[in-house]
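#onboarding

Welcome to the new folks! Below is a worked example of what a typical request in this channel looks like: someone posts a single protein sequence, and someone else replies with the predicted structure as tokens. Don't worry about understanding the tokens yet, we'll cover that in week two.

Example request:
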Amino acid sequence: MVTEAVPVSSTWTPKSRRTGLIARKRGMTSMWDQNGAKIPVTILQLEQCQVTGNIETPRPAPLPPYYAVQLAASDKVPKNTTAQMLGHFKRIGVPPKRIAKEFEVTQDALVPVGTELSALHYVPGQYVDVISTSLGKGFQGTMKRWNFKGLRASHGVSVSHRAAGSTGQHQDPGRVFKGKKMAGRLGGERTTIQNLLVARIDTGLNLIFIKGAVPGVDDAQVLITDAKKKINFHGLAKASKGLTGADVLPGPVQALPFPAGTKQMEATVGAIAVDAPAWGRNPFTPKDS
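Example response:
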């Protein structure tokens, strides 16, 4: 069932769950933080990421209804779009898109259909989870696939340096157990990397700089969400201790755009590039003895 977005509140709380974003992985580079430390970053770019639906599905009591925001990104020519998806996009007045995904949210985080989201959705200094399809590496042996040690690379080992070794027992059970770590196809799977730091946002080019590596090939579609552990779970734990406001958010983050960071919000601040403030110990300062 598709519903209209009726925000209950305009402020993020630890019980709120915001929508994510769909971005394109553009590659990796390096940048320097305020302490002068060089950090590797992955550049993600938003391409016409718009809300194409708000979903409400009742669930058996005592569970609350399921709420979700459907996003679509990367404009696509109509002739390469199926008739079913053309009808869906035409009904809501949105250009055809290459990818459509659904993000579970709380009721207060629903976003009006047609809203275009911006890189302002994430705040430099916060943590995110990134989901994508990992690099496919083909059929690999046990040492590369499962980090097996292998046998000695010295005398006495005859053409078995990288062998998997025994995979079963005896006549009883007389078979190889399911799930045994053996050679096989590696990579090419949906992979989630948790608790990655947002190092910078650039609203002029709709770029999000993520500290560290992100799964997937260049130009792959990537899903970004608020970190389930360091934002949602830690926020609830801090709120249970009586903390409020910015105290429930990690590090220097003061607030999160709620229910979402939109193009309308971006128009009020213009094209800006914001780096995450350096917090914690300076790596160039000697440790106290």
